[in-house]
Write a structure and sequence with these properties.
Helices cover about 85% and strands about 0% of the residues. The longest helix has about 30 residues, at about 140-170. Helix 1 runs antiparallel to helix 3, helix 3 (about 35-55) packs parallel to helix 5 (about 80-100) and helix 7 (about 105-130) runs antiparallel to helix 8 (about 140-170). The radius of gyration is 16 Å and the shape is globular. It is mainly alpha-helical and about 180 residues long. It has one domain (about 5-175): Arp2/3 complex 21 kDa subunit ARPC3, CATH 1.10.1760.
Amino acid sequence: MYLKSKDVAAVATCSALWAALNITINPIFFQITRMPFLCDLVGFMLLSLVVWWTRKPGAASLTGLLVAALTLIVRPGAFHMLGFVAASTIFDLSTMRVGYNRIFGSYRKYSILVVISIACAWVAGLIIGSFFMNFKTLYAILFFSGLHALGGLIGGAVGTVLIQALSIRKVQTIFAEASIGS
């Protein structure tokens, strides 16, 4: 299953938005609060959206790679983005493994997407806390990863609300019809 032009457009759109927020708003929020969850909120909201939009393996991983590359181009010291590359890859593999038709549908099924977001954000927090924040104790790393998991919870929830709103308005159907007509 290859990514078609509409899938590439979804990846590019979500990557550009995530990278733009990563470069502008997220660092300011982190400097003011020292809380890492805004990046997770934005990231997992957009990863949820790109997986719903494409329903193809590799889309979330590609999104994570593009965001990391764009962020590192503008902010060369932002190596913490490697944690999000790993989290995006795990998110991609997890949603593929569970099955896109099982995740998207009813409100109850969307809880699976939120759980995946929490787990992947927690992994990102573990990687960032261990390798890039230089925390000395296991407690500090676990607390930091818990804050990332909170961002994954909020991002997954916001992503599911956004997906539901787009589904009600039949946005994905419009995109599918446009790609068939072209």
